[in-house]
Amino acid sequence: MQANLSLRLSQKRDLTADICEFTFVAADGAPLPRFEAGAHLTIETPSGAWRSYSLNNDDGETSRYVIAVKREEQGRGGSLSLHRQLHVDQLVHARAPHNGFALVSAPRYLLIAGGIGITPMLSMLRRLRRQGCDVHMVYLTRSRDMAAYADLLESPEFSGLVTLHHDHGDPKRTYDFWPLFATPDDRHIYFCGPPALMNAIYLRTIHWPRRQIHSESFSGVDAQDGQASAFRLRRASTGETFDIAADKSILDVLRDRRIAFASSCESGTCGTCKVPLVAGEPDHRDLCLSEEERQSAFIPCVSRALSDEITLDI
Amino acid sequence: MIEGRIDSLYRYPVKGLTGEMLQRVSLVAGEGFPADRLFGFVRHGSGFDPARPQPLPKDRFLMLMKDERLAGLEASFDPANWHFDVRVQGHLVHRADLSRQDGRDATEAFFATMFDIPHEEMPRFVHAAPHRFTDVSVVSSGLMNAVSLINLESLRDFEMRLGKEVLPARFRANIYFDGWPAFSELELVGREIMIGEARAIVTLRTRRCAATEVNPRTARRDIPVPRLLMQHYGHSDLGIYAEIQDDAVIEPGSRISVMGAN
Ligand code: FES
């Protein structure tokens, strides 16, 4: 559980026409919990809604948290209330930073930011520069006016590390990524931006090893249905247990472990993979078992567990 | 008589990779499409022996069901000289002569890189003509050489019910045709149809698997096709397999019909 924090807004400044920077310090003036580049801070906005924003300051700092927030006129009100109703010296509730987008150690880094996607990338760039790593950043916005932190990124501090590009809304001036992606090498690529940019980069790096491609807010669509969480599988015949990650099916995990398994549709419709259910609370997601069969059978290509552990006769 | 027209023809020389559209195809009795699914990348430890090819379950191959990123590659293979090209968004990223060992090695390395596969577990590029790596090859050798067909009218019916576009390319059929009542093709198992001037016997309904969840344009899973088929129709079948009985040349526009249908 992330600790609750009380923060005080110490500075607020406009970076562009619709992006505002907020600097928070601990309400009691003590050092803040450490964070790592890529982490986000979850705060209670004046609208009452909790929202997460990437931290963009250097993760070596413990005196402040800096975020930049784009005003979303069409949004649900969280960003708007920060812009309009949060003033210097006011206090906000927050949860300690959490990182789902951590930098891994790599020989070289390519960071790509589109629009407000600059925020986690800036923190990464600050840290990699401080550590003397080989890093290049590409930062894309429609115009220079709309590029938060453009002055900073063009300052001597970052000279030679950043490519700024503005397409002015003209498809003919779209940045050509291809020279950067043509040949997979030892670079790790981190990117964050609007969906169109995320998709374009996904498709243009499709031939790159996945472990070198890192992006935020893009987990893909779970074709099976909404939410999935991790659980443990126990194999009744041997007592072995297997951790089933949220993005894996039982079938995926068993196959990776070279446990032979009959399957066909892998979408819960054919019943080929059916196994006896021994214990645990199942989350049946198949479309082939009757309610009665569901008492004692389980379809491991799609079904999951509601309990922490489920035991199957495999 | 039910009569329709062929819309388009495709072959998939390398199992799991994108298809190539064909302008005409010479059907041969007892054979599938020329150069269809003649090659495949089998996973390490799959136990495939090209000298004694045995059908393998589809999960032993690099394939869309698990590896949706394959849909983001544009592959082309020339069966005349075994030259193989892979493009990403129109850019050439790999070119090899698969008739040579160094070309096959380089191709295996390309896919190992793409899929983070350690050197010791390199996938193998296999070819064992006349063996074909069709999904139904595990059922019988007749089916291994069957052609797959999709009735576009059935697909339209499905799209209407979903209220979404479902690209035909998800189904990786050899023959896409139009003009038969939606889903009438599923009732024809055991019956004879005419594909151009060739007789063909419908041998199986195509039960769809998770590979059809992958959108060929975005290379991501989006629509859970087998589940939605099940919900809307009570089965997860879309398309049929047929075994060709005569030699004939077919092309888009050729007639496709059911004799004596009532
Ligand atoms: S493989 Fe078809 S239901 Fe699991």
Summarize the helices and strands and which ones pair or pack:
The complex is a heterodimer of chains A (314) and B (262).
Chain A: E1 4-14, E2 19-26, E3 40-44, E4 50-54, E5 65-70, H1 78-85, E6 91-98, E7 108-114, H2 118-130, E8 134-141, H3 150-153, E9 162-166, H4 178-181, E10 187-192, H5 195-204, E11 213-215, E12 231-235, E13 241-244, H6 250-256, E14 275-279, E15 282-283, E16 297-298, E17 304-305, E18 309-312
Parallel strand pairs in A: 7-8, 7-10, 8-9, 10-11, 12-18
Antiparallel strand pairs in A: 1-2, 1-6, 2-5, 3-4, 3-6, 12-13, 14-16, 14-18, 15-17
Chain B: E1 2-11, E2 20-22, E3 25-27, E4 39-42, E5 74-78, E6 83-88, E7 91-97, H1 101-114, E8 124-127, H2 141-144, E9 147-151, H3 152-162, E10 175-178, E11 192-195, E12 198-207, E13 214-215, E14 220-221, H4 225-233, E15 237-244, E16 248-250, E17 255-258
Parallel strand pairs in B: 9-10
Antiparallel strand pairs in B: 1-2, 1-10, 1-17, 3-16, 4-8, 5-6, 6-7, 9-15, 11-12, 11-17, 12-15, 13-14
The complex binds FE2/S2 (inorganic) cluster.
FE2/S2 (inorganic) cluster binds next to loops of chain A.
Summarize the structure.
The complex is a heterodimer of chains A (314) and B (262). Chain A is of the alpha/beta class and 314 residues long. In chain A, 15% of the residues lie in helices and 31% in strands.
Outline the structure in words:
The complex is a heterodimer of chains A (314) and B (262). Chain A has 314 residues and is an alpha/beta fold. Helix content of chain A is 15%, strand content 31%. Chain A starts with a strand and ends with a strand. Chain B has 262 residues and is of the alpha+beta class. Chain B has 2 domains: 2-33 and 136-258, PK beta-barrel domain-like (M1 Pyruvate Kinase, Domain 3), CATH 2.40.33.20; 39-129, no CATH class. Chain B has 4 helices and 17 strands. Chain B has helices at residues 101-114, 141-144, 152-162, 225-233, and strands spanning 2-11, 20-22, 25-27, 39-42, 74-78, 83-88, 91-97, 124-127, 147-151, 175-178, 192-195, 198-207, 214-215, 220-221, 237-244, 248-250, 255-258. In chain B, the strands form 5 sheets. Chain B has a 7-stranded mixed barrel with strand order 1-10-9-15-12-11-17. In chain B, strands 5-6-7 form a 3-stranded antiparallel beta sheet, covered by helices on one side. Chain B has a two-stranded antiparallel ribbon with strand order 3-16. The mean pLDDT of chain B is 89. The chains are: A alpha/beta (314), B alpha+beta (262). Chains A and B meet through helix 5 of A and strand 7, helix 1, strand 14 and helix 4 of B. FE2/S2 (inorganic) cluster (FES) is lined by residues 263-266, 268-273, 286, 288, 299, 301 of chain A.
